[in-house]
Amino acid sequence: MAKVTRDDVARLAGTSTAVVSYVINDGPRPVAPATRERVLAAIKELGYRPDRVAQAMASRRTDLIGLIVPDARQPFFAEMAHAVEQAAADRGKMVLVGNSDYLDEREVHYLRAFLGMRVSGLILISQGPSERAAAEIEAWDARVVLLHRRPEAIDDVAVVLDDVGGAQMVTRHLLEHGHEYVACLGGVESTPAYGDPVTDHVEGWRRAMKEAGRSTDGRLFQAPYNRYDTYRVALDLLAGPDRPPALVCATDDQAIGVLRAARELGIDVPGELAVAGFDDVKEAALTDPPLTTVGSDREAMARAAVDLVLDDGVRTTGSRRERVRQFPSGLVVRRSCGCGG
Amino acid sequence: MAKVTRDDVARLAGTSTAVVSYVINDGPRPVAPATRERVLAAIKELGYRPDRVAQAMASRRTDLIGLIVPDARQPFFAEMAHAVEQAAADRGKMVLVGNSDYLDEREVHYLRAFLGMRVSGLILISQGPSERAAAEIEAWDARVVLLHRRPEAIDDVAVVLDDVGGAQMVTRHLLEHGHEYVACLGGVESTPAYGDPVTDHVEGWRRAMKEAGRSTDGRLFQAPYNRYDTYRVALDLLAGPDRPPALVCATDDQAIGVLRAARELGIDVPGELAVAGFDDVKEAALTDPPLTTVGSDREAMARAAVDLVLDDGVRTTGSRRERVRQFPSGLVVRRSCGCGG
DNA sequence: ATGTGGGATATTGTCGATGACAAGAAGGAT
DNA sequence: ATCCTTCTTGTCATCGACAATATCCCACAT
After folding, report:
1. What is the mean pLDDT of residues B34-55?
2. In chain A, fewer beta carbons within 10 Å around the N or the C end?
């Protein structure tokens, strides 16, 4: 079956090709109702679908938004990606998702690929220092909005959470339960990265500990960002001689790994070990015990990111601070901290 | 910064535009080494990136593969999507992922969108009867490979698992543990769909029960395909008067919901209730107890799907049967069935 | 010298739409 | 009737690359 083009439609409708275009994306010129009907009928009869590639070519636009995440298999990113898709769909845009797999190289790869596809904007949940990504963005003069994480190298508009405040909040909460101290499970990055949520979580924990007059020395542990590796790390940590009485994790996924390890070792949560996570992924409500964590309005953040990337104000001037849109985080109390029952 | 086009490169390198193309995708004509060097230098100096849209326009090809899944937030689909991405990357293709959210309308939406973007092929993990999808595929004369599920309406090449055999296998295994009978937790579809894995799982369970001389009457239950809803359904099911001694679930995600409900109710697994899932998602190894399930070589299936969609033989003739590539499933024994410890 | 073969490079039509601009038609005012 | 408006519709250059075809250049055989 040969491809149906706009010319075929025009021929059948007895009009010019321009009119067909006018009907399709109503504008830029008005079309007489009768003509419109004929064109519509022809389109339906032939089963014509405009070729998006050609449209993009001619109009120099697309209704695509690129979204790059570290790993869409992780619940948090999956949920965030879904929220972005929804927000984009509400504005008639489609989202292309790329997984960087926490690799600089793949991040740049997708950046290039998406930009080459002329996406109308890019939302980036970055990883690592991202200097190469920054260079790429610069080279293309691309519209980019950073989401969730804000690498120092990339100076674009960002939509982030109050990570420090959130972590401080949970830590305080755990402290209020009367634990002698609260340990922290952070990430594995060697160099604490500026603008990194996990780094901020650690900072929040530090502040809460300090204001409570507790020392943080030797109480910060590290684990990868996924439940599987964290599970292994936690087995050691919890089986060791100085198991902390309470532990705040930088992400829910890590907390889930910890919970699993605790069960394996027969450690009662929250009786013998209080645990808290961060992110409030859907699954946090279904762990055993349900996980106390820090939540945010993910839909609102996704919407903000989409709006920023599509509307003005993205490449506005202003200090770095002013170009960051920070959302509040809220404590989600469940049972893993020792509350309720 | 104005966009750098191929013409700019040609000008700087002092050659014609065609030569630049020849260098970029070496061919179809040879280029003298010296010239190639000059072109390469010019490309680097200008930071030139070929415009993918224009390339697609002119060459009538893209290196894109569309993948439509019901919901990428579910572990199984997320893992499958990842495997497809890997397989595609190995062949130099990029994957575009769309979520149908189990809606016919969105399935067609993505089908249209991807086809309009001239993807070189489509891999479809379909849902529902998909008549509209079938019509769309027909209209575009698209290269489609069905993965995981094979709706009756769409008669394309398919890559599937031996779902019946797998379910039969686990059911037998549970039966061998000496349970009086094994109940089954299937999906919620009103009309059992042809080519649907879950329907096949139920069929496998039925066969295993029959060959063991057990009745299946009143022993088939239903729940949605995700852990959250299944958790609620399971609370009722397990708290009821005739709780089954063993339960095979149509998916791991459901089994995880069941496990959670059992814990909530204080029912020991596998002591008081043996549980098995299907899919062997990564998480199955980390549940408590670890989940006995049915696995498959996901990478091989993804590779097969990608190969089929890119190579010949896709629209080959042959009976429906012959155009289905079925992979074997294998029992993954862990502890939720009562084995080991 | 002249012809010739073939590798390297240039020219150009094409893909399928968009949208600026030109042009045509219809209706109103003078 | 003639001339403007105003509303619709048609023409065509354009987007940025590909690739078929044409052309050039030069070594080599005759």
Report:
1. 91
2. C
